[in-house]
Design brief:
2 domains; binds zinc ion; three-stranded antiparallel β-sheet; 12 helices; alpha/beta
Amino acid sequence: MTIQQLRNIKYTILGGIKSFSIPNTIRKSIFPGEKIILAYHGVSKQRNPNTFNTKFLSQAAFLKQIIEMKMHFNFISLDQFAHNEVDPTRLNIALTFDDGYLNNYTEVCPLLDDLKIPASFFITTIFNEGLDILWMDLYDLCFKFLPRQIVIDGIVFQKKFKGMFEMVSGMELKNYTIKKDTAFIEKLYNLLNKYAHFKSDRSLDDFWKLMAAEQIAEIDRNPLFTIGSHGNRHIAYPFVLEEEARRDMKKSKEALEKIGGNKIIYMALPYGAANLPTINTAMSCGYQYLLLDEFNALTKEYPESVWNRCTINPYLSAKNHILFIKKTLC
Ligand SMILES: [Zn+2]
């Protein structure tokens, strides 16, 4: 058994145990009348949901969290969040899901629909570009098939332990690529696609497959659910030219409005990456509310329609999540 496999087992066990069991002593006094947005990603029935993506949660852990939260808190939609329609006696929670994974449609929506819990799904519309996978997932899933050295756009990356590292800066390929533009990402796709042998393995579908147009449309038709944009190509807008950011934001909005018919007013910025020019560009494209995450906290210069979120971490205890929530609210 490899170190990685042992680590996965440890994380799965810890994730299961720590997953949101709120201690009796604090559950009644948590933030009455306050509101918070939680950010989830993938939810999977797989035994080790964190094998490729550390933000994934097992379906069992997710169900446990939702039931626990439903007992003590009030769920609200993003529209209710925007208009301050909250229960003054309880903590109010808006659920959001990033990236548009197919597992959101298969594992999350039926559950939330049964429990009548509102949620918002932020879709990356890369199907607009003829792509069927996010580059980060493509990289994670074909990593083990990659040779010891790869060259993208003249930049050499070498395989060391768990990543491909750029030779000069020592930067890992993911961190390096986040700061690059569409042209570089396209070259990365071209290279990685040669090693995408995992695509025929159905047991790995949960880790990369994205929703198709008809599934997005179905979610959009459900009055409990809201569709928002998570960009067209999942690029970090502050690192690209304004024109490229604008094109990407517009393309995603138009595609989602065509699919669902509803106006797209919410966008969760990819990687939560924001600055004031990016926010202004998004607003001028017709987005009314932008969502970040705790790694890119709000600054005073941002308008009130830019919101922070608390990203659910499968390895954190309920107590630490609550500390996170506290930090996000203050
Ligand atoms: Zn994302």
